[in-house]
Amino acid sequence: MTKEDYREKVEEHRQEIDLHNESGAKLSRTSRNQKKGKKKQSNPIMTLLVVVLIFIPLSILGYVWLFYEPSASEAETVEENKDNVVLEIVKQNEDSTKDTADDKDDEEKADDTKDKSTDADKDAEQEKESLAAEEAKKAEEAQKVAAQKAKALEEKKKAEEAVKAQQKTHTVQSTDNLYRIAIKYYGDGSPANIEKIKSANNLATDSISTGQVLVIIP
Predict the structure, then answer these.
(1) DSSP bridge pairs for 170
(2) What rounded mean pLDDT belongs to the chain?
(3) CA 115 to centroid of chain Cα atoms
């Protein structure tokens, strides 16, 4: 192969590459133009959708605001619902007030019960204190009575001891009688002195015997 033939083949091959590149560039430009066209065609659709979505709600709101009036039955239903709501609220308030009143009554009853219990406890305590004071007073009085009795017995005992210390004895002689003995020891034979001798010696009569020992009290 000569150099010229080689150059011709290289030139042919180069031309084929150039043709291929040109066709690819044309194709890429065509696809870009098509995409731009599609983009340009899609924009009006989006605009239309946005307008429709905005216009429909606005139209509904305008209709309701300007032309829509509720029917009588609907108005009655609304009023009835309002009345029911008001009645329910009033009932709830009444129940709440009743519950509050019941709670207050329960609290008052509890307070009254507590006060009564406290008063009963106070009364019981006072009664207990009163009984204790009465018992102490009785015990003190009993002690006083016992002391008085002991004192009286002691005084009586002392008196008896004093009488015994002062009393005398007399042995009856054959010629003695109560009248003579009374004259001897009391200076007088009066019935009172004779009775004193009889009482001191537990004599029922005036008779005495010889050798009998008589107690002569002052």
Answers:
(1) 214
(2) 77
(3) 13
Query: pLDDT tens across 46-63, in order?
Result: 888 888 888 888 888 877
Instruction: Specify whether the backbone of 190 is left (phi greater than 0), alpha (psi in -120 to 50) or beta.
Output: beta
Q: Which amino acid is at 136?
A: A
Q: With contact defined as beta carbons under 8 Å apart, do 191 and 185 qualify? A: no
Give buried/exposed letters for 139-178 (b at 16+ CB in 10 A, else e). Answer: eeeeeeeeeeeeeeeeeeeeeeeeeeeeeeebebeeebeb
Cα–Cα distance, 195 to 168 (Å, whole number) = 16
pTM of the predicted structure, to 2 decimals:
0.29
Can you give the pLDDT at residue 113? 77
Which is it for strands 168-171 and 213-216: parallel, antiparallel or unpaired? antiparallel
- Let me know: does 171 contact 165? Beta carbons within 8 Å: no
- Alpha-carbon gap, residue 174 to 3, rounded angstroms: 221
Tens digits of residue pLDDT in 106-148 = 777 777 777 777 878 888 888 888 888 888 888 888 888 999 8
Q: Over the stretch 24-41, which tens digit does the pLDDT of each residue have? A: 545 455 555 554 554 445
Structure tokens at 103: 């709670």
